[in-house]
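Exercise: predict the fold of this chain.
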Amino acid sequence: MTTTTLINPADETVIGTIEHSTIEQVDEAIARATLAQLGWAALAPADRAGALRRFASAVDGAIDNLAALEVTNSGHPIGQARWEAGHVRDVLNYYAAAPERMLGQQIPVAGGINVTFLEPVGVVGIIVPWNFPMTIASWGFAPALAAGNAVVVKPAEWTPLTAIRLGELALEAGLPPGLFQVLPGKGSVVGERFVTHPGVGKIVFTGSTEVGKRVMAGCSEQVKPVTLELGGKSANVVFADADLEKAAATAPYSVFENAGQDCCARSRILVQRSVFDRFLELLEPAVKAVKVGQPGDADTEMGPLVSRAHFDSVAAYVPDDARVAFRGSAPDGPGFWFPPTVLLPASDTDRTVSDEIFGPVVTVQAFDDEADAIRMANASQYGLSGSVWTRDLGRALRVSRGIASGNLSVNSNSSVRYSTPFGGFKQSGLGRELGPDAAEAFTETKNVFISTVD
């Protein structure tokens, strides 16, 4: 039996080991899910809704437990981890309203009545990344369950503990056995089998663009629908007329939260040339004020990177001769600690400008006018998120419409609300998660014509 040894990223101690699921175990789980889904879909919508609310209540009662697991397994600060566990509860409650609102249509036609039904796809395979193990899992399983599907979840190898616990809570809440299953293991085994198994009706994948392309190609063999949430290299665009103090004070938290391990991170700051120097003066104390420390401390704002391998990947972008403007601080000693770092790249072609570093590293560049800002913001293969800072409402709308990105905020750095759609343009992904229409993405539309001709 293959296993993964789990390491606490804050001190490099061994947490434990997790056994990997085999292909045979995955096939057995999908068979159980197929049977469980039939009974689940046959329930009255109000009963499915009630079951999801009980699941949400079970999560609410385990928030401290889930948060503690995320602190130890992922290195998330305790305040952030508690928010993430509460977010899972809130997502479940939000989609508990969906079963009774899965509305078809009555379409006027000649010679009869025409109606549509939203039928569940069956079993949904959800492949979860390591950076936000709880929250991103819930974006898939909550609407999928609401639409009448069963789910099988593959957590990331490095950070499986909260997903495993959510699987236990689903059973404790009374969800039917087999309806919600968590299968730890390798992506090349478990994730690949989700893609190739004919009994899995849809794949939801969050991760790198490189792997997402392979998932999409695999799904094409069966014409299997797929939702992809992939990489990002989002721009934080600051115009001269913006509230510079607020833009600079909040910029560190738009990229250094979760140690920069966030596809929505605003890892490119674009500042209008006339206020470039002033913005840097304001940004430096804000960066140095970010509290990097032990994840269990209540005042910690940024923890360690997730693993030694990832630390080495991030560090490779900041060699000794890097154009570092300034840095924050990080603890010494064991753990995968990387300080918040601000770079001044030599050119637009610098790899720190184009690559998704996925760590607490941000570049700052100057632009001249609106057209230049939009050009620079769009000079990326990605288009997931971003921010625009200006007091001019017309400019805010023009620039927001001009930037090719799925999620933009004006005078704010927020990216995700469970009540609004989330997803990317270009190589940042395919499809949308969250929002009022997410459950429909886990259904097929069936058209039925009933003749009334005598």
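Check your answer against the key: The chain has 14 helices and 20 strands.
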